[in-house]
Amino acid sequence: MIPRAFSLQGVLAGLVMALGYMIGRFLLALWRGLQIPEPKGKFALIARAAVLAASLGLLLYCLSMTTEWQNSVRARVNMELLESGAALVVLAIGLGVFILLFLIGTLFQMVFDTLRRRLYRVMSPRVANLLGLVIVLLIVFVASRDWVLPSAIEFLDETYETAQDLFDTAPPAPTDPFISGSQDSW
Predict the structure, then answer these.
(1) Percent composition of the chain: helix, strand, coil (DSSP 3-state, to 5)
(2) DSSP-derived secondary structure letter, 82
(3) Which end of the chain is more exposed for a tag (fewer CB within 10 A), N or C?
(4) What's the whole-number average pLDDT of the chain?
(5) CA–CA separation, 75 vs 3, rounded Å?
């Protein structure tokens, strides 16, 4: 764990929310694909309410601990402690990232559904579903290889150059062998 700016913490929170949502949707698709009956009625309502309550409780706990967790790490690396954790800023950025990723996922779902419905006209539903999935995955692969990946590599290169510029003004390495960063530490 490293001390992070609240903007980066919010982006990471949004990514984790989207990942959790994606895992839940995958498990639901697997459940339906295996044709296991879904819970219905009062039991399903109570189960959903319990999961929602636990999720919201965990979210509120994590947001309330933001400052304490960041300060515990900052104290260990001799950084200035924070007065507040800006939990609402983290939450707002996280929700924004989640919504963006959710919309991208919805776009891919719409493309898949459109392809699948068109393929139903000429082949069986099982084959159409599989071929539709393969086509969407190919589209994602080509788009990420030709646009997303080069953009990410360029961003990382710029970040690395900026980080290297910070070392020009860095203090000298410690001489005590028991302090991390010295020539004799391991």
Answers:
(1) 75, 0, 25
(2) P
(3) C
(4) 86
(5) 10
Cβ atoms of residues 95 and 14 within 8 Å: yes
Residues 81-112: tens digit of each pLDDT: 888 767 888 889 999 999 999 999 999 889 98
pLDDT for 186: 65
Q: How far out from the chain centre does Cα 95 lie?
A: 11
Give the count of alpha carbons within 13 A of 23, CB side only: 6
Domain boundaries, the chain: 6-100
| 34: DSSP letter | T
32 Cβ contact partners less than 8 Å away, ≥ 6 residues apart: 38
Q: d(Cα 61, Cα 98) in Å, to the nearest integer?
A: 19
What DSSP line would sit under 106-166, residue for residue? HHHHHHHHHHHHHHHTTS-HHHHHHHHHHHHHHHHHHHIIIIIHHHHHHHHHHHHHHHHHH
Q: Which amino acid is at 129?
A: N
